[in-house]
Amino acid sequence: MKQEDQVIAILGIGTTVPEFRLDQADTSHRLTDALRDNPNSARWAKKIFKQCGVETRYTCEPNLLETAENCRYFSQNNDQAPSTSDRMATYKRESVPLALQAANRALDDAQVDVSDITHLITVSCTGQFLPGLDAALTHQLGLAANVNRIPFNFLGCAAGLKAVCLSRQIASNMPTAKILVVCVELCTLHIQPSSDREALFGASFFGDGASACVVGVGNDQQQPIFQLGNDHSILLQDCADEMKWDVGNHGFDLYLSPNIPKLIGTWIPEQIEHLLAGGPRPEIWAIHPGGKGIIDTLEEVYGLSADETHPSRTVLRNFGNMSSATILFVLDHTRQELANRGAGPTSGISLAFGPGLTCEMIQITYLGIPVHDEKQLDESYV
Predict the structure, then answer these.
(1) What are the φ and ψ backbone dihedral angles of 247, each rounded to 5 degrees?
(2) Is the dihedral of CA 289, 290, 293, 296 positive or negative?
(3) Domains detected in the chain
(4) Which part of the chain is the Chalcone/stilbene synthase N-terminal domain (predicted)?
(5) Which of 88, 121, 129, 158 has the smallest number of Cβ neighbours within 10 A?
């Protein structure tokens, strides 16, 4: 690649999920069975499980596949539910192998050697331990001992895209940099033994997964996937209570306000216009599927077609919301669909939302790939 043609881009993407698959209808049936002594909550849970846009998702916890009587996460007896300490022990055991798999897939996809990685950004909000994920990955991937490690902890769903934006900023100031971003989230570990609507809503659509990408300037051996353009971050005013995640005795207690889609529809278009700066309407809309309502709102505001929201809806349907890891699943699905259509360079935007409320967004351009390198659409994305 000639010097004048060099662009800062996502060079490779890797995604993975745990082995245990949660079927939405089956999970709803087992949860409502656990709520049989609270029929109002059972009816509400059954309704939200059906309407949230998820059909399958994955978990690292086999106990979540057990019957209502044997599932500690569904139990309405807090004495039987896993403590926060129990859940963090599972997170520490299960997160590193999953993150390693995603990272290795991204490195292979990018055709980048571990010795080329100058920066490691690790992202997670569903568990913590020290020495952390960044140290574990440095040792087990064989990264240089002096690799620049940047942990993003407890920043929520938007953190994966924030890490991509930071990677672009690093590469713009250091063209020789190769940044490895690794996101791993084990959201299902925080399913609560509760009949409260807030807890049941969170239980209805979160899943586990890991994703990774390599960001940097491509060379003759590396074919850039998405060129990264201008990025923009905004923290909305007076919205701090709309999305919260507190540490409780039985995992993390999540609250998601029903007002979130409306707030996004009201305030985010102005921010998108700020990023676009009068430029053309994006052709690609890689939206983090934080919930079906968020996709519905942006689809309505911008008149998006079913094809434009297909990657986001498909990831939500097949994997659920995997918090920070989800946006790279969406970008990978988008890349595969465009490649299978033989698309040429295509401009777009990627957006993700998190507690605050905060929104991260970045302009992207799919650059196309040679025919002999095309990936066939993975069956999990169909």
Answers:
(1) -80, 120
(2) negative
(3) 226-381 (3.40.47.10)
(4) 9-217
(5) 129
